[in-house]
Specification:
- It is a single chain.
- The protein is an alpha+beta fold and about 150 residues long.
- The chain contains 3 helices and 7 strands.
- The strands form 2 sheets. The chain has a 5-stranded antiparallel sheet with strand order 4-3-2-6-7.
């Protein structure tokens, strides 16, 4: 499928070195040097929500945008200043990591975070302007039954 994604910056060998450096030495010794046997490139979907913030009194004078990155796998929300740069590429459907959280919980979590954000700016209102889906690549490996994620 053709999707917008952030470019891959690390190779599989570099990712393997970084993952091995993350594992503590004591863990390697006590588990008899279990190796990393399964390393895959997966894509996690991010929703980019662009909100227009307008002031009630001077709406035509003051217009601004806030951009929210929503990780659909973990439900993490991050406010960013500008849109990330993406490229269009074809990826296989089985390379996309499925979401752990259903959409209802994601919407409620986002709503709560935006309400906290709006309390800082009481005289402003938020209007959803644009929703874009992008995919971010991650190297995922299994070590001792746990998944380790590393940015690609």
């Amino acid at each position: 499928m053709l999707v917008n994604l952030i470019e891959i910056k690390t190779t599989e060998k570099e990712a393997l070195k970084k993952i091995l450096s993350k594992i503590p030495l004591l863990s390697k010794v006590t588990q008899f040097n279990k190796g990393i046997n399964d390393i895959d490139l997966k894509y996690i979907e991010y929703k980019i929500l662009k909100y227009k913030i307008g002031n009630y009194e001077n709406e035509f004078l003051r217009k601004n945008y806030r951009i929210v990155l929503l990780n659909t796998y973990t439900g993490a929300i991050k406010f960013v200043d500008d849109m990330p740069t993406t490229v269009k590429k074809y990826i296989a459907r089985d390379c996309v990591q499925k979401s752990k959280i259903n959409e209802y919980i994601l919407k409620n979590k986002l709503k709560g975070q935006l309400e906290k954000y709006c309390r800082k700016y009481e005289n402003e209102r938020l209007v959803l302007d644009e929703i874009v889906s992008i995919y971010k690549p991650y190297w995922i490996c299994k070590y001792n039954g746990k998944k380790i994620f590393l940015d690609a």
